[in-house]
Amino acid sequence: MAMADRICVGAISGAFGVRGEVRLKSFCAVPEAIADYGPLGTEDGRSFRITLTRPVAGGLGARLSGVTDKDAADALRGTRLYVDRDKLPAPADDEYYHSDLIGLEVRDTGGVLLGRVSAVHNYGADDLLEVQGAGESVLLPFTQAVIPTVDLAAGRIVADPPEASE
């Protein structure tokens, strides 16, 4: 399946212990749900079955099929894990998969093009849309007040950015 038909649901942040367990960061609304989607794939075509072992600082402890020692687990640090889109639940109203937002055109309420969504970040509070414009990027809070309209069918977001303070 093409990468466009896959959603990133987590990433391996390193080894945990000496027996091949990994520290897994889940991007799922319910973090433990990452183990419910069957084998997860990587960008380079590998596939892993996930067995969660315990909560750990910064994520979940997990065993991956075929990973049996610390060196193999360490080698996977930074690997992103994907699942086929059709295995995930449909998002609720006013909820979006990050991959659906990336690439959308962003215009202000007057119709002026601000740029395109290049990334979605979360530093602990609300999600932030990174909008790449002419030579610069800005971060916009992904809230109803700042982003009143997301139209996936039209490939467009309407933004009402806060006024810049001087």
Order of helices and strands: EEEEEEHEHEEEEEE
Helical fraction equals under 10%
Domain count: the total is 2
Q: Tell how many strands the DSSP assignment holds.
A: 13
Descriptive notes:
This protein is mainly beta and 166 residues long. The chain has two domains: 3-87, Beta Barrel (Elongation Factor Tu (Ef-tu), domain 3), CATH 2.40.30; 98-159, PRC-barrel domain (SH3 type barrels), CATH 2.30.30.240. Helices cover 6% and strands 42% of the residues. It contains two helices and 13 strands; from the N terminus they run E-E-E-E-E-E-H-E-H-E-E-E-E-E-E. The chain has helices at residues 70-75, 98-101, and strands at residues 6-15, 22-26, 40-41, 47-48, 50-56, 59-64, 80-84, 105-108, 113-122, 127-132, 137-141, 149-151, 156-159. The strands form three sheets. A six-stranded mixed sheet has the order 11-10-9-8-13-12, with no helix packed on it. Strands 5-6-2-1-7 form a five-stranded antiparallel sheet. The longest helix has 6 residues, at 70-75. It is elongated, with a radius of gyration of 18 Å. The N and C termini lie far apart (49 Å). The mean pLDDT is 89.
What key phrases describe this protein's structure?
166 residues; Elongation Factor Tu (Ef-tu), domain 3
